[in-house]
Structures are given as C-alpha cells and as structure tokens.
Amino acid sequence: TLKFLLIFLFMILCTLLYQPFLCRTPHNPLRLWFPHFWKDALFLMRVIRYGARLEIYRRTSRVVTVVDRFVQQAQRIPEKAFLIYEGVTYTYGELEERSNRVARVFGDAVKEGDTVALLMSNEPDFLSVWFGFCKLGCAVAFLNTNIRSRSLLHCFRCCGAELLVVGADLLETLEDILPSLQEDGITVWCMTQESPRPGVHSLLDQMEEASQEPVAAERRSVRCLRSPTLYIFTSGTTGLPKAAVITHLQALKAAGGFWVYGATGSDVIYTPLPLYHSAASLVGIGGTIELGATCVLKKKFSASQFWHDCRKHNVTIFQYIGELCRYLCNQPTNEKDHRVLMGVGNGLRQDVWREFHRRFGDIRMCEIYGSTEGNLCFMNHIGKIGAVGRSNFFYKLIFKYDLVKYDLVREEPVRDHSGFCQHVQKGETGLLLSKICSQSPFFGYAGSKQLTEKKILRDVFVTGDAYFNTGDLMAEDEDDFICFRDRVGDTFRWKGENVATTEVTEILGLVDFIQEASVYGVQVPGNEGRAGMAAVIVRPECTFDGKKLFSHVLRELPSYARPLFIRLQESLEMTSTFKQQKFALVESGFDPCSISQPLFFLDCSEKSYVPLTSSVYDSIVSGQRNV
C-alpha cells in the first residue's frame, strides 16, 4: 500500500513540475526521451486508484464483490438497460429480480460454500442463474459448451459440484453421462417449463412461482478477497480440462478493465464471446456492471451481422479475439458508418490490425494479455500495433515479471551453472514468468495440488522464490512494449480456444489402428494461432482408415481440437526423459513437398481424412480452402 501511494504521489509531483515546461517548450527533453510519459502516468494513476480500493477491501475485510456492485447498480439505476439480447432489453432491475427468483428456488437446496455447475449458452438467464447462486454464497463453475462425454464428467468431479443447471438447448449433450451424474448424486436442473425427462428438474416454472424479494445480504457477504467465486475451465498439459480457481480478487480486477481504459457508464458494450470464458464474463459483464453501462449480448458471433448490430444498438465498445477481427476483415464490404470507438481483447495480429483500421476506421484497439488463472496482466493502453502490453519503470515497481531464456528443444528454461534462470536481453524472446507474492498471488486449480504445482517454477533467481509459468514466449523492445511471440509446451491455441495436446492424443489412442500419436500445433498462413496436427504410428497389422478416424474425432472432440492434418510415421522421436520430441515436427509443418511421409487433411465435405496433395496444400495456404 505504501509503495502504491509513493508512486502515485511521485507521478503527481512530476505532472505539476513538468506541465508548465511542456506548455512553453514544444521540443523538450521529456517529450523526446519519454514520449509516452503522460499516457503512462494517466493510465497508472487509474490502475493505482482501482488497486487502492481493493487494498481497502483487504484491510477492512468488507469486500464489495461484483454481485454486490450489480445489486448497488440495480438500486441506483433500476430502469437502465443492462442487457440487450436478440432485440429484447433487460434492465438492471429486471435482472436483479430474476436472479432473486433463482436464489429463492435454491435457498434451501444449497448452503454457503457449495459449488454449482452451469452449462448454458449466451442468454440472459446465464446471468440470472450465476448471480442467483452467488447471492446464496455459492461458487459457480462455468462449463465449456463444446466439451463432451468423459471430459464433461471430469469437470464435475474436479470442482466438486453437486448441482447442475443446463440450458434447454444443451440438454442433449448430457445424454451419455446423465446416468453417471445421477449415480454421483448430482442434481440436474434444466431451463424449461416442464421436466424434459425423468430425473431432470425444470427450473423456469419454479422461478415463475418464486418470490422476487432479495435474500438476506448476509448470505452472500464475503470477508476475504481470496475466497473462490467461480471455476473457469481451461485446457492444459494434463490431458483434461482444468478448473481455474477465480477468486473475488481476480473477478474485481477483471471488472476494472474497461474503466482503466477510460470507458464510462454511457458506453454500450458488444459481447459476442462465450460467457463461459473469462473475457466475456469477468471483463465483459463484470466491466459493464462496474461502469453501470449497457451490454449487447450475442448468442454466437456473426461476421455478417456484426456491424448491423453495432449500428442498431449504438455500440461504442466491442470485445474481440484475433480470429473475430480476421473474420470481419474477410467480409466483402467496408463499414465506417458506426459509433464504435474502442475494441478490447487479445490475439490481434499486426496485419489484421492494420487492415481492420483501413476497413473500419480509426477504432482504438486495446489489447489485454493475461490467462484465466494467471497472476499477471498487460494492457496496451498506448495502442501500438502488434504489442500486447506496455511496461515502464513504475509498472515494474508494482508487478514483478521476468523474461528468461528458454530451450525449445528441451522445452524448459535455460539455467546457469548455479541452477538459476537467465534473463534475456532487450528485444530477445524469452519465457514470461510472473513472481508469486502477496501482491500477485496464484490460486491454481481445483481438484489437485499437482496441477497447480506444474505451473510454478521454483528457485528461479534465488533459492526459495516462486514464479507462475505463463507458457508464453514474449519479447520486450527498447521502448518497453511487450509483444507475444509463441506458446510453448503441450498447449496451443486455435479458433480462440486452448487445445491440450495430451487430451487429443488420448482420444486418438482409442482408435484401433493407431499405435501411438504425437499431437502439436502448426501455423497456417492467414490464421491466428496454430492448427492441430498429429504424427501417427499405424499398428503393423492395420492400415490407415481416414473415414473411421474422421468419425471418431467428430464424435469425441470439439471442432477446434480436431487435428486438421495427419502425418504417418514409422517412429516418434523422444527426449532423454522419454517425452515426445515435437520441435522438429512443428518446424516442418504440413507441406507435402518437404515431407516424405504420407500426409492427410480433414475434409468435411468428404467426411474423411483425405491425402494432402500439393494442390490441396496450395488451396489451404492461399485461403481458397477454409480450415
């Protein structure tokens, strides 16, 4: 707290001392040597101001949570539009009353500290159920609507949920595991008027009969910022989704994102991202509540409807991932007849960034870097194209992070003769590590301490220190701008989703003709992230069957996790510790002209993996064939 206060006072002093000098001298040393000083100062003052509020919560044990803020806004501006969904407007007061009904339905069924699971698409009742259970003192687990069968069952078991609310449109996804859920004692409720099948309760009819009066505020009261409020599932290196623990501290930090970027209560925020991800729920909905603004919620992103929606609802801010902006740039028409001023998101490539500005106007694109479970966040408040964040002297005093040398072949940080990691030089690519301390805690994953421990690097620079391993390769240039380079390890990102290679490998291993598989990501020109590829060894007594493999991955894996390319191998290279060596495979890509082994491509029109010929390859890299 003292450090925050001193930095804050120092920046104010600099402002007072240099302001007259700046007014008199257009070409002064401060402008030449520190061109971003004033933007940095304003941005950091807002960050420190917001952080001071959280520090007050910590010291007084009187935490005002995101749901508390929602209740406050509902009392302050009950008639203001909070959510616009499919043309229907829901006010703060209406959503408050509806969430109260949910709390009343389950008031006697759950107790403070219980965990409930939520499997719903983007819709207003996602928020009603979420807030309703939070008002009862429960933690809520957001389930990814793309996962199926055993992965979905695993999610319940690792977060300890004993109750599930499922959207009416997603009930069929539970077909295979419903008996197992019931055997485990998990009560299933569906957003329907009548029970859709035996053992599944209907919720909408119960909500209509319930009172809209709020439950006692003491039921949701929180005394510790570090108590869990959500579990958000993220793919990792363990083969199955991991439940990242989201505390009230993390939720409140994320909710301040729009405000720190300068947004106000008069803004209209467009959210086409899935609510089960932290970007939409924590930054989008939480940020809307913090501002007292309006959110236009889209069930699913549509490139053809995007600008129409923005004009119709007078959108001023939209949330994005890099893929979303690329899809918009692929549309045939330019759109500059809108009121959009700012986009907030991550993963925007430089070429798409420039094309986006050319096509759609000088919209301020605000990149945010940070993983769901991570303890570090970067924000590109300057707007430099290609940067994910901006650092400076003051930022480094508050947030402790380092870039260290990384061995891509061994897939581990480089350590010196004393066993400590080595810093990279300015401009050099390194593994991003964030120090775990009281200011930047790491809360890990539910279900297993081993999962949490795997994300921690110890004895990094001195004996006994601990750092969160982001798994990302970054570079920091001479002007303190931070740029993303690549992901390392057993996770890659495709179509805006993290893909765990171990999980895909296990699924492929269930096919009878596959003896062994090594899954990795390869770059496809014109696309963000890396597409899935698998090097496969076929059993000696079998032959490769493209149709059978296609049917298997279609049934067992979400679309973003299905390997687009298959490479047949006679053997797989291993490291000295018997880990699959993927570096050479990743480097060689999927070009049939440079790879002697047979290659196959997932062809949805043929419903099979078909031979990857030179002509097919050319159509992929030229963008004529969608991937």
From TrEMBL:
<dbReference type="GO" id="GO:0005324">
    <property type="term" value="F:long-chain fatty acid transmembrane transporter activity"/>
</dbReference>
<dbReference type="GO" id="GO:0005886">
    <property type="term" value="C:plasma membrane"/>
</dbReference>
<dbReference type="InterPro" id="IPR045851">
    <property type="entry name" value="AMP-bd_C_sf"/>
</dbReference>
<keyword id="KW-0813">Transport</keyword>
<dbReference type="Pfam" id="PF00501">
    <property type="entry name" value="AMP-binding"/>
</dbReference>
<feature type="domain" description="AMP-binding enzyme C-terminal">
    <location>
        <begin position="503"/>
        <end position="579"/>
    </location>
</feature>
<keyword id="KW-0443">Lipid metabolism</keyword>
<dbReference type="GO" id="GO:0044539">
    <property type="term" value="P:long-chain fatty acid import into cell"/>
</dbReference>
<dbReference type="Pfam" id="PF13193">
    <property type="entry name" value="AMP-binding_C"/>
</dbReference>
<keyword id="KW-1133">Transmembrane helix</keyword>
<comment type="similarity">
    <text>Belongs to the ATP-dependent AMP-binding enzyme family.</text>
</comment>
<keyword id="KW-0276">Fatty acid metabolism</keyword>
<protein>
    <recommendedName>
        <fullName>long-chain-fatty-acid--CoA ligase</fullName>
        <ecNumber>6.2.1.3</ecNumber>
    </recommendedName>
</protein>
<keyword id="KW-0812">Transmembrane</keyword>
<feature type="signal peptide">
    <location>
        <begin position="1"/>
        <end position="17"/>
    </location>
</feature>
<dbReference type="GO" id="GO:0005789">
    <property type="term" value="C:endoplasmic reticulum membrane"/>
</dbReference>
<dbReference type="InterPro" id="IPR000873">
    <property type="entry name" value="AMP-dep_synth/lig_dom"/>
</dbReference>
<keyword id="KW-1003">Cell membrane</keyword>
<feature type="domain" description="AMP-dependent synthetase/ligase">
    <location>
        <begin position="71"/>
        <end position="388"/>
    </location>
</feature>
<dbReference type="InterPro" id="IPR042099">
    <property type="entry name" value="ANL_N_sf"/>
</dbReference>
<keyword id="KW-0445">Lipid transport</keyword>
<dbReference type="GO" id="GO:0000166">
    <property type="term" value="F:nucleotide binding"/>
</dbReference>
<keyword id="KW-0472">Membrane</keyword>
<keyword id="KW-0436">Ligase</keyword>
<keyword id="KW-0732">Signal</keyword>
<keyword id="KW-0547">Nucleotide-binding</keyword>
<dbReference type="InterPro" id="IPR025110">
    <property type="entry name" value="AMP-bd_C"/>
</dbReference>
<dbReference type="InterPro" id="IPR020845">
    <property type="entry name" value="AMP-binding_CS"/>
</dbReference>
<dbReference type="GO" id="GO:0004467">
    <property type="term" value="F:long-chain fatty acid-CoA ligase activity"/>
</dbReference>
